[in-house]
Fold:
Amino acid sequence: MKARVKTSAGRLAFARLRALSLAGLGALACWCSGIAAAQEAWPTRPITVISGFATGGSVDVLTRVVTDQMSRQLGQPMLVTTVAGAGGTIGSARGARAAPDGYTLVAGSSGSNAAAYATYEKLAYQPEDFAQIGLLAIIPAVIVVKKDLPIRSLRELVSYAKANPNKLSFGHPGVGSSVHLQCELLRQVAGIDIQMVPYRGAGPLMSDLIGGQIDGACDAAPSSTGPSRAGQIRALAVLGDQRAVSMPEVPTTVEEGMPSLQGAAWVALFAPKNTPVSVIERLRRALNTALDSPEVQQRLAKLGTNVPRPAERGPAYTDRFVRDEIAKWDQVARVARIPKQ
Structure:
């Protein structure tokens, strides 16, 4: 009799356990289906894009131009929020900590998401904290000199600098900036000695270059285009393999026989790591459509920036590109012995 009671109790316990297990599996299936459905439905509300740079600056403006077109593809607004400071690293840090649901993205740059690893002692994020979506825009860098300097090409600049070591003075908009590293790259690749003159921003630098207080500068093509066209300065070469849309008459460093001297600035769209692949793919498609839009291409051209070519798009390319950029600028900073902030 006791054996029968124990057997009945055991069967009852097993039945209850089985029921609970099935219920649990059902709940898990519903939960997983809910996540899948949510990912399929994404986006269902506005998307925040963090810009780590001042409102009205180049990164901010370029981000707004491209994401405005992307929002039309996604059917939801993409709201650019400024979180400026520390060379864009504060904004990137906030984006890295955001929920990986596709509703918070980061507009990073060659400064905040590449050069910063070489110029900042401690960052609140690492490259692996982000999932790449793609490049938004490429900002060509250019080597310029004062108008009365007897130099009219990159080759002549190198020859003159080697014949007159440490005589030429070149300005840049701040120690550790992307443009500073571009100037250091020029020194290292060309094997020349030039005096580096740091400024607090591109505005004062350009004023002194136009006034003849310095001999040359490394600068972004958009800010040099006006003075160059007005004959106030002379542009020698664009650092890259693609001419700047704002100054198509200026040859590239590749054309000038210095293929190792490449260093354009750029803006890219990132998401926090672990963002669903389906969401990244939706964003990639929307970004590509935006970049192919004649409206976006015209607006970027007016801003003096190049549209990423088809081969320069997508998460896979951007991941490789950003890692190469990090390694390159780290090497440049080490050789130049630039102190970390």
